[in-house]
Structure formats: structure tokens, C-alpha cells
Specification:
The protein starts with 6 loop residues before the first strand and ends in a 10-residue tail after the last strand. The chain contains three helices and 22 strands. By secondary structure, the protein is mainly β. A hairpin with a 2-residue loop joins strand 4 (about 60-70) and strand 5. The strands form four sheets. Strands 2, 3, 4, 5, 6, 7, 8 and 9 form an eight-stranded mixed beta sheet that branches. About 45% of the residues are buried. About 5% of the residues lie in helices and about 50% in strands.
Length: about 375
Amino acid sequence: MIHVNTLASLETQITRLGIALEPNGDASEIEGVLNPGSARSRDGKLLLYPRAVAAGNTSRIGLVEASGSPDAPIFARIGFALEPQETYEIRDVPGGNGCEDPRVTFVPLLDAYVMCYTAFGPSGPRIAFALSNDGYAWTRLGLADFSAPGLPNGDDKDAAFFPEPVISPRGVPSLAFYHRPMNHVSAIDACAALPIILAMPARDRESTRVAYVPLDAVLHDRSNLVRVAESALVLEPAHDWGRVKNGGGTPPLRIDEGWLSFFHGVDAQYDAAGKCSGMRYSAGIVIHDFERPHLVRYRSPAPVFAPETVDERRGMVNNVVFPTAIDVRPGARPREFDVYYGMADSRVGRIAFALGASTTVGAGEEESAA
């Protein structure tokens, strides 16, 4: 891993704006509507792509248009962007299936929208991609291919593309995306597994990585977008928060200091007797180097927001804030954004996020990439 902090501090401000979407009584949302992607259409309209969960944890990716005032948008469901239909999205055993947790990035060099989502099929959760020319109609590319030697190749989640080409750790111009390989230590009972997880070296816990796809191959044939050549660990669990695991959140967004993104970190919750009572999902921000995103310039020393409201603390999964979409509102002040997030795996919340001044220090030592 290369972890170089060059920002000593970064001012942030969070303002909760309430619920954006919640289950409307339709059978497709009976178990929640959550964790949306977002994009601006060609004519500037805000689109959301929430995960809609039907009975039995069957997930679809919705298509929602925003209208009205930017300060008080009205969200209208207009259908589904993706419904489970491919073999890698469908399974017939209990536990769920379908298309989950999309993140959407417009990539100017491809002049296309790229959606990453979790395909939950017979092999378990895998990263899958789809492309769109307009943000409405989507064409699947298939599963991300991690079969190259030395890559983590198994259950994986939390993918989101960077919007511009970057340089990989090996020096190759590439398109890059977040991902989080899973180790399943906590799959059955996270509290029971907690001593095992915390005894692991931090880099062996579930952690945010950046995967790289050579740019020349994609420009030759877009189907090569699935063919991963490298993967680097960029955000191992920290000591102060997010100790159990972390994963990607929003697609990266360019700011003066580098690529800005929200991520989620997971910690144990304890009851009054000091016994583990479950997990708590909080959110922080990370800033990557423009050219080489395996260089981390800043990482939140504490969560920028955590479960506090009733809707964030009680739901299908308690104590969860899970940011997945960031939007530059037309007419917004510089360094002000709207962020959409999952609330306790049941609803979609919205916050206003503002960045203030940053303080820069000298770069630290670089370590070899993993």
C-alpha cells in the first residue's frame, strides 16, 4: 500500500436534509429502497438509481427523476434501470439475489455513463458493469474479470469508477475503480467474529482497493472495461474508527486537492454491559492524488457523519449511514455538494456537504503498492 498524507486538516460541514426516498408500498420495495447511484442527464436532470428490495431480498435498480426546486427536489419513479435477468444475477437459494448498490460515473473520454453494481448470483456477490449513452437505457458489459495472476478473485462489492484516466502503480494509463474483496469472517455473526477480525493485521481485513483497466484496451473495445490488470490496497482499516472493515462509497469527484470520495467504515456497537450488540456504519472522506490514486492525500481521522437520527438507527439493518452518490447541484457554491446515502438499509437520505479550507504538510514516505 502507498499511503501519503499531504493534508493535515480539511474543514467539512454536514447538514441533514431529510429523507429523499422511502418504500412507497409497492411490492418491489417491500424490504427497502436504499443506496442509490446518481447522474446528471444530458440535459442536466438529476437521476437517481436506488436499490429496490422485494420480498426475499430480491434487488432491482430503480430509475428516478428529480424535478422541482433544487433545494426541495421531488423524486418520481419512472421504472427500473436494471432487473435481474442474467445468470450471474439470479439464484434459487435463500438469502437473496439480483442487482444491488449501483454507483454511476459519467466518463467523458468514453462519452458514456458507466454503472458499477453488485450482481448477487449463484457464485455470490460479484462486481458487474453496464453502459448507457443517456443515463436511462443500460447495456450490460458483464462481470469484472479479476482472473489475471495476483488479483483478488472472488466475492467483491462497492465498486465505483473514477471519471478520468489515471496512472496505475505500474505506470500504465488506466481507467480505475474502487472495489472491496470480501473475506466472510463476519458473514454469520459479526460480534462472534469480532476478536478474530481485530486480531488480523489491518491490511488483511476487508479494505478499499483501486482496480485498474488499461486505457488503450478500452479505447480499442469497450468490452475490455471488465478486464482488470492491477489492484492496489488504498485504505486499510484504521485504529481510531472503521476498525472492522471499510469500503467505497461515492464515485470520486475532482476538487482542488485531488479526487474526493466518501467511504464507509464499520465498528462494533456495545450495550450498557459492554457486550457487542451489532455493527455501526459511519462515513468519512478520502482524497486521492489526481494522477496516481493509490496515493492517499487525506483520510478522515474521525467520521464526518454517523447514525444519529431514528431513520439511520432503526431499519432493516440498524445503525447504518452508507453514502453512494454525490451530486454537484446546478448553481451551488463551489465545494458544496449533495450526498445521497442509505439509511439503516431501508430509506434514502440526503445531506448537504460543504468543504472548507485545507492545511497542507509535506509528503510522507511512499511504500510499495499491494
